[in-house]
Each structure stands twice: as structure tokens, then as C-alpha cells.
Amino acid sequence: MKKGTVPPDRVRLRRLAEKALGEAADGNDDLSGQSPEEIASLIHELRVHQIELEMQNEELRRTQEALETTRRRYSHLYDFAPVGYFSISEKGMIEAANLTFASMLKVDRGVLIGTPLSQFILNEDQDIYYKHRQRLLETEAPQACDLRFVKKGGQPFYARLECMLLNNKGEDSREIRAAVSDITETKRAENERDNLQAKLFQSQKMESIGTLAGGIAHEFNNILTVIIGNNELVMEDLPAWSLVRENAEAVRVAGLRARDVVKQLLLFSRQTDQKKMPLQIGTVVKESLKLIRSSTPANIGINQHIAEDVAPVFGNATQINQLLINLCSNATDAMIDVGGAITIDLGNHIIDEASSTANIALSPGRYVRLMVGDTGHGMDRQTLDRIYEPYFTTKAIDKGTGLGLAVVHGIVEKNNGALSVESSPGKGTVFTILLPAYEGSIEQEPETSIVLPKGHERILFVDDEPAVSKIMKHRLEKLGYEVHGFTDPSEALAIFSNTPDAFDLIITDMAMPQMTGEQLAAAVLKIRPGMPIMLCTGYSEKVSEEKAREIGISSFVMKPMDKTDFAVSVRKVLDETKGTTQE
Ligand code: ADP
Ligand code: MG
After folding, report:
1. Which of its termini does the chain have fewer beta carbons within 10 Å around, N or C?
2. Is 394 in the pocket of ligand 1 (CB under 6 A)?
3. Beta bridge partners of 97
4. Helix (H/G/I), strand (E/B), else coil: 348
5. What percent of the chain has pLDDT above 70?
6. pTM for the whole structure
7. pLDDT for 32
8. What would the pLDDT profile of 106-118 be if each residue is shown by its tens digit?
9. 233-252 pLDDT, tens per residue?
10. Are strands 156-166 and 175-182 parallel, antiparallel or unpaired?
11. What is the spatial distance between Cα 48 and Cα 42, in angstroms, rounded to a whole number?
């Protein structure tokens, strides 16, 4: 109960008592002026009121206690709120703060009171704070901003401030109240999302560059075939003593280098057909490293750690090989001047739910991890940002093509894996590749998993080059065919004219000195029309597929022939012409 609000009843009573006492002091100390009834009644009334007063007193105490409890509850709510609270003066001095805010900053609350808030804000973000305060004072409207506070010990954290201005003390001393939430997690998630976005853009860019590069590479392949082929023809005709030979040789070397570049480009743009199969990646890597070791300078060591139990992957050995060669040659380039070591690490790796959200590119599961590290000069941020771009190179024009890592990137993507790099100037570089482990069983050896089409037909094979004739006879026999090999076309023709039905197929080279494949084919077809004939030509021979068909030649293959393609072509010709031949 507040002062000055004594009930009127009590006021009257007090007056009465005072009057009676006053009269007593005037000589009537026995209150003789009052009748005994009057005095008794007065005393009774006074007692009643005394009791009443005591009751009110008691109530007051209880109210006070309740008030104290409420106050305690609110200050507890304030102090231990999930967000930090503070109040500052217009000048920025901290006037009050809750314990949450103090513990966010890892200081005692006492340290905060009377200290400028700016002392706890990261230097780089002071500007944000001042502008924010200024705006708040100017507009008097609630404002929010994000800035970094610094904890005791120097560690910064991101916070969101939501502030309002209070005018309760009058115009000259306004008060700013703020709620502070730690948004480090949110910021981290935002950064991650931005990174992912950037990665997405990057891979989309790579995708379109890949398509473009693929088109160019195909075009180039054709042009290069003409250049290399014609140059070879020129060289064949040049006498050994000719000075022009040297120039022609330079053209050949450059041509071959260009062909390698195109090959890389095609690989990068994924336009080469690379069959995938279950692979014992440990074996592939070991084999690859044998080759790499032999071409790595002596001042660079190679350490390999290949886990015995490394899981198989579903991929292509040539691609894995390419990948390692590219990474190791970059590592070598980075150490060539001072020497150093390449470390290859191959082992199993598990991605669980938690690490999958951290690295959204991969879903949880079993992976194989291939790490290629070096102790070379490393890379700065600017270089790192561009290394996967095709044609990005920091090397001399005759040293780098800028395609190595673009190819690595393409291969890893195509295998649903992930590629990351850690590097800093002078600290070396580590590339880490994760490839999904192959979950199926792997009984077959990689080589035997391609089933070559076979047969038992009788084949007459003609090539004036004894070595080629021998290899091809061997190849065909391994497929089950019965082969008669000749190096002289006239001899082959003689045998054929004697026993034209003893053969199911003739395979002949085109360019032979005594008789061309075309002439042989014409003679054979005269003897036995419809005889299946396969003509093998090099790039420089002017026989088009139409021309060959016009003569009556069943099939036309380009040299050099791939083992698989060759077996398939042979089988195809035999199957296609089966109906027209006499067996
Ligand atoms: P290239 O080797 O032809 O330059 P890459 O695509 O293989 O092309 O590499 C691109 C660039 O990345 C290199 O020029 C080099 O600057 C940098 N780089 C790649 N690997 C490494 C490494 N291991 N150490 C230092 N720098 C590297
Ligand atoms: Mg390279």
C-alpha cells in the first residue's frame, strides 16, 4: 500500500484518539471528560483497528514477497534468456546486460557494465555497428544488423542484433536495447550453400565447355589424321639423306603431340567410349605406378600406401591410369627443380549421414579414397580457383596444355565420385578422389570380362607384311577360326582359284606391291561372286567405303585395328553373308 492512502475511517479514528490524548494532557489525564462507556468503546475501536492494521501489514508483507518472487522470476528470465540482451546509452556505453550476453562474450557481467560496446566488436565490423546505431538514433525505428563480436580470447562469432530505441528517460538520454542471437551456424550454412552453388555453376560451365571441346576435338582428329598420314607418306618417299627429312620429322613429332592433346580433350569431354567394369583398383594403381615411376626423374621419390583390402570400383582402367598420370605429372612439375616426394594413398572410406550433409555431392555409403600428395611449390587461392578449367595453365607454352586436371575432373564426375584439393604456396598439394565402391561381386578378371565373338569358319588372310600376317593369323586362331595366312596375294589367289569353296572369308590388306587388295578382291569375285571379303586400309589409301562396296567387297576396316572391333567386324561379315555363301 502506498503512502498517503490511509483509509478515511482510520484518519477519523486517529483524530479521535489524538483529541482524547490532547484533552488528557490538558489536565484530564484520567480522561474524566469521557464517560467510561465512551472510553471503553474507543479502546475497543482502537483494538479492532490495530488488528486490522496488523492484517494489512501481513498482506503487505505477502505482496512484497510475491513481488520479490516475480522480480526474481523476471530477472532470471532476463539473465538466462536464450538470447543475449543489453542496453546501451546513446553514446554506446553498456548500461545493462544479461548473463547470456556475458557468457556469449565469455566475460563476467561486471566487465560489461560501463564499457563501450565497440570494445567487443570485431575491428572489421566496427563500421557496421556505428552506422547501425546512427540509423537507429536518426529514425527511432527498430533496426537489425549482423556483425561479429569477439569473445574473450579473440575468437569471433557472428551475431544478429535487433535493436530498439527507448525514450523513457527524456530526450537527452535515450537508451538503446538490443537482443543478440548467435548466428554462426546460420552463416556457416549460408556459406556452404554459396559454395555448393559455386560448385554447381562450375560443373555446369565444365559441362558446356566439354561439349564444345568435344566437337572441336572430333574436327581436329580428322584434320590431324590427314596431316600425320600425309606426312608419313612424304617421309616414306624421302631418301634417307634428304635434309627435308628433319623438317618432316618435326612435323611428325608435333602431329603426335597434337594427337595426344586431342585424346585428352576427347577424354575430358567424355566423348570417347570408355567401357566400365568392376575393377580391382589396387592392382590398377600399382600397375600404373610402375609406369609412372619409370618416367619420373630420380630426384623425385614415390611412396605408395595401398590398402590390402581396398574395395573394387566400377570403372575403366585406362581412365584410372590417365587420372594418376595427370596428377603425378603435375606433382612432378611442381617439384622438378628442388626434388621431393609423391605420396599415393589408396584405401577405403565411409561417408555417413553426417559427413554426407557436410559434403552434399556424395551420398552416404562406401567409397574408395585415392590421395595423391606432393611436397612441391603448392598453389595460391587464385590458381586453386581455376585449376579445373580446361586450358588453364601456369606452365610454359610447350610444357602445359591446361587439360590434365580438366580430364581428371571429368573422369571423377563420370564415375560419380568427388574431387578435392588442399594446397597452399610452399606447402605442397594433396588431391583427394573419392570413388563409389563397387558393391557387386567381382569374380571375373577385367580382361576376360569382354567376351569377343568367336567362330570356326575358314579364313584366308593376306598381308604383304610378314609380321602383320603372323599376328593376325594368331589373333584369328585364338578366336577359333581356321586361318590360312599369305604374304603374297598372287599365291593366295592361286590357292583360292583351286579351291574356291575351301574358304568362308577373305581378309586382305589394301596396299601391297604386287597386287592391291582391290585387284585381288576383283579377281576373287570373278571366280566366286558373293565371296565375303574384308578389305583393310590405312588412312592414306584412297578407297572409300562406297567404292569398296561397289566392287562387291563386304566390309571395310581401318588400320590399326582394335582387337575387339576386329573380332566384331569379322563375325559381322560372316553372319551377314551366311545366306549368300555356299557352305
Ligand atoms: P597443366 O599441367 O598442363 O598446366 P593441369 O590442368 O594439369 O594443366 O593443371 C593446371 C594448373 O594447376 C597447372 O598449370 C598448375 O599451375 C596447377 N597445378 C596442378 N597440379 C599442381 C600441383 N600438384 N602442384 C602445384 N600446382 C599444380
Ligand atoms: Mg598437368
Report:
1. C
2. yes
3. 86
4. strand
5. 86
6. 0.43
7. 61
8. 999 999 999 999 9
9. 788 788 878 888 888 888 98
10. antiparallel
11. 10
Cis amide bond preceding 156, omega within 30? no
Bridge partners of 314, per DSSP, are 278
Question: Distance from the CA of 361 to the center of ligand 1, in angstroms?
Answer: 23
Ligand index nearest the alpha carbon of residue 384? 1
Taking residues 461-482, report their average pLDDT.
Answer: 83
**C-alpha 95: how far from chain center:** 48
Q: How confident is the model at residue 449 (pLDDT cuts 50, 70, 90)?
A: very low
| CA angle (558 as vertex; 450, 576 as ends), nearest 5 | 65
List phi, psi (to 5°) of 469: -55, -40
DSSP percent split of the chain into helix, strand, coil, nearest 5: 50, 20, 30
**252 Cα to the center of ligand 2, angstroms:** 23
User: Between residues 487 and 288, which one has the greater pLDDT?
Assistant: 487
pLDDT at 359 over 70: no
pLDDT, tens digit, 9 for 90 and up, residues 251-274: 988 888 788 777 777 766 655 556
User: Is the pLDDT reported for residue 399 higher than 90?
Assistant: no
Question: What long-range pairs does 231-235 form, CB within 8 A, spacing at least 24?
Answer: 231/255, 232/540, 233/540
Cβ of 405 less than 6 Å from ligand 1: yes
Reported residue count of the chain is 583
Task: Please state, in angstroms and rounded to a whole number, the distance separating the CA atoms of residues 217 and 267.
Answer: 10
Contact between 260 and 296 under an 8 Å Cβ cutoff? The reply is: no
Beta carbon of 424 within 6 Å of any ligand 1 atom: no
pLDDT for the residue 274: 61
Lookup result for grid cell 599365291 = 491
* Residue to substitute in 325, 330, 333, 377 for testing ligand 1 pocket (most ligand atoms within 8 angstroms of CB): 330
What span, in angstroms and rounded, lies between the C-alpha atoms of 91 and 174?
9
Closest protein CA for atom 27 of ligand 1: 330
Does ligand 1 come within 6 angstroms of the Cβ of 342? no
Taking the CA atoms of residue 257, residue 259, residue 260 and residue 266 in that order, the dihedral angle to the nearest 10 degrees is: 150
8 Å CB contact between 242 and 270 = no
Task: Identify which ligand lies nearest to the alpha carbon of 429.
Answer: 1
Q: Is the CB of 331 under 6 A from ligand 1?
A: yes
Sheet holding 418-423, edge to edge: 300-306, 340-351, 365-374, 429-436, 418-423
